[in-house]
Write a structure and sequence with these properties.
The protein is mainly alpha-helical and 80 residues long. It is built from four helices and no strands.
Amino acid sequence: MNPHVEQLAIPYQRSMMFLSYIRGPLVDDWVEEQAQWLINQVTGGVLLRIWPHVIDRQQDAQERHAQKNGSRMRTASRRQ
């Protein structure tokens, strides 16, 4: 992986690329909400810490889903 390519070097681009890989009928609405949230953050001038927020929101959603369904999930440690 080349961290210098635009899609990885720019947090907004990285976040949108990440969201584009999450697909499926159970998550499509969530992905759309996150993409809209991200667009709102960028157009509102909030550029700091976008990537960590996207990852945190995704991990929170996974944990809530696991709790709701009574299953156990292993999540990666949150990176800041």
